[in-house]
Amino acid sequence: MSARQRAATAGAVSIYDVPMVDFQRVAISDLDSAPVVVRLDRPIGAPRQAVWDLLALEPSRWADFVPGFSRSSHWLTQTPEGVGSVRRVTAGGLTIDEEVLVHEVGSRWGFRVISAPLPLAKGLVEDYVLEDAPGGCILHWSVGAWPYGPPALARPVVTAAFTFLANRLSAGLEKVAGKP
Questions:
Q1: Which terminus of the chain, N or C, has fewer Cβ atoms within 10 Å?
Q2: Helix residue ranges per DSSP H, 41-127
Q3: Mapping DSSP to helix (H, G, I), strand (E, B) and coil, where does residue 38 land?
Q4: In this structure, are residues 139 and 163 in contact, taking their beta carbons and an 8 Å threshold?
């Protein structure tokens, strides 16, 4: 099903009224060979399982720990094993469809972007790996992007954007998941 068909059947609305655009199909295993790769490690003062639950279980919960995400985010399809599930998130007024590629309860979760209204890249994949650490856990966040333009031009923009997001994400996760 194309991005336009998914949007029409699921009622996707962007405040910018920009049509959804399909991204290329990529896998988690493609991440290391992406033209632009960003790897960020952030300590989080909260238990690993609590952080994983917030990241992976309920899309609407992202609004609790990342400013700009909407409570209207939800699952379009959900599989018992997690992999293959599709969620629709709304962030910054933009609607983005994502397919879960990795679902390892308590330790790893990843997805690819299926479609979005602003194709800043041809493909995008994200991988979240959590490991226990004293006082909480460490989030290892990797992003692979296939930009439309030269990777050398896209790399600083993608790195800055995801570094900003990682700082907000980790602070928000610690605040919400770290509550007793």
A1: C
A2: 48-56, 62-65
A3: strand
A4: no
> Whole-angstrom Cα distance, residue 30 to residue 46?
30
Residue 120, classified by CB atoms within 10 Å of its CB into exposed (0-12), middle (13-18) or buried (19+), is: middle
Query: Encoding tokens for residue 83?
Result: 């992999």
Q: Taking Cα atoms as reference points, which of 42, 5, 13 lies closest to residue 170? A: 42
Query: Which H or E element spans position 131?
Result: strand 121-133
pLDDT band at 7 (very low <50, low <70, confident <90, very high): very low
Answer whether CATH 3.50.50.60 is correct for domain 3-177.
no
The whole-model pTM stands at 0.89
Q: Tokens 């609590």 map to which residue?
A: 50
CB 99 within 8 A of CB 116: no
Q: Distance (Å, rounded) from C-alpha 106 to C-alpha 129?
A: 9
Query: What are the residues whose beta carbons fall under 8 Å from the beta carbon of 153, sequence distance 6 or more?
Result: 147
Q: What digits encode the pLDDT tens for the residues 52-102? A: 999 999 999 999 999 999 999 999 999 888 999 999 999 988 899 999 999
**Cα angle: 62, vertex 58, 136; to 5 degrees:** 65
Q: What is the predicted pLDDT for the residue at 38?
A: 98
